[in-house]
Specification:
- The complex is a heterodimer of chains A (about 150) and B (about 160).
- Chain A is mainly alpha-helical and about 150 residues long.
- Chain A contains 5 helices and no strands.
- With about 160 residues, chain B is mainly alpha-helical.
- Chain B has 6 helices and no strands.
- Helix content of chain B is about 80%, strand content about 0%.
- In chain B, helix 1 packs antiparallel against helix 3 and helix 4 packs antiparallel against helix 6.
- Classes of the chains: A mainly alpha (about 150), B mainly alpha (about 160).
- Chains A and B meet through helix 1, helix 2, helix 3 and helix 5 of A and helix 1, helix 3 and helix 6 of B.
């Protein structure tokens, strides 16, 4: 694998950079959102900060990660490999990236309603749900990072 | 997965921990710029611990697993230019990160002093410490250096 990395064509580097950078921003946003929401203890300012961390950091990170993934995948020729024959690390990474994106969207919608309801003194329960989803996503994306970098057989 | 594959996975996960901690510190830096009371400043404490732990574990992991890989993986040597550059960037990021932490800790210490003295209201001095330009510049430079490490790791110039 390391030999393959060493002889990787230069034209693959930028898409890979976008993919990894996006994934790092995504994971950083999830850690920020989950920990800020987790330590908010009902404080509206902290709850808003946690939600906005998810929205402003995680979502763009996911988009960048997914664009980079599609780009590097086509460069490496994985798009031409029949479904079911692709390596397990790619299946794990792709599945978590896509399903995780949907869960992230759901958590942002739920959290958005929660933030809106904070004006009436409600919504902290919805933001707790957002925090739990963020933690689940954080763990799932760390598994994806392990799979994509360690490349299990 | 071979042992080296595990080391590589842990090296990359450590790098993710560093960047995640940095991003969390950026969120806290934005939040603390509006904190002018001891309570508002000290409220950030537990989240700061999470960010600090992520960066600490990440920095330790990147260097330990990275050096292992440099010695273990065929085709790479510790004296390769891109690896030396990464080591230098790592040392610079660690040193500047500690300085940024010290700059922001001044606000936390002031908040603790004010709280101990029973002063719970807004403080212009505390707000100024929380808005430290030195800390902000250092955090920015650290972020750029970490980005340079990522670029170095992907392009591997000279490899």
């Amino acid at each position: 694998m390391s030999v393959i990395a060493a002889i990787r064509p230069d034209s693959w580097n930028f898409p890979l950079f976008l993919h990894v950078l996006g994934a790092m921003i995504l994971v950083g946003g999830l850690l920020s959102g989950a920990s800020t929401l987790g330590f908010a203890r009902g404080d509206g300012r902290f709850l808003r900060l946690g939600y906005w961390s998810l929205l402003v950091i995680s979502l763009p990170g996911w988009v960048l990660m997914r664009i980079g993934a599609g780009w590097i995948s086509s460069k490496e020729g994985w798009d031409d490999v029949p479904e079911g024959l692709e390596p397990r690390w790619l299946s794990i990474g792709g599945f978590i990236a896509d399903v995780g994106g949907l869960v992230l969207l759901v958590s942002l919608i739920v959290g958005g309603v929660g933030v809106y309801r904070l004006r009436e003194g409600k919504g902290s329960g919805l933001l707790r749900a957002t925090m739990i989803l963020s933690l689940v996503l954080l763990v799932a994306y760390l598994v994806a990072v392990w799979a994509m970098s360690g490349k299990p057989d | 997965m071979s042992f080296d594959d595990w080391m590589l996975a842990l090296h990359v996960l450590s790098a993710f921990a560093v960047v995640s901690g940095l991003i969390l510190f950026w969120v806290l830096i934005v939040a603390v710029r509006r904190a002018d009371t001891p309570e508002g400043t000290l409220r950030m404490g537990p989240v700061t611990v999470v960010a600090g732990a992520a960066i600490g574990i990440g920095l330790g992991g990147t260097i330990a697993f990275g050096v292992w890989l440099a010695f273990s993986v065929g085709g790479y040597d510790i004296w390769n230019g891109w690896i030396v550059a990464a080591l230098v960037f790592w040392v610079v990021a660690t040193a500047l990160g500690q300085r940024a932490n010290t700059a922001y800790m001044a606000g936390t210490k002031k908040a603790q002093e004010l709280q101990a003295a029973g002063q719970t209201g807004p403080s212009a001095e505390l707000l100024a410490l929380n808005r430290t330009p030195k800390g902000l510049v250092l955090q920015f430079v650290v972020s750029i250096v970490v980005l340079l490490i990522l670029i170095d790791m992907i392009w591997k110039p000279g490899a």
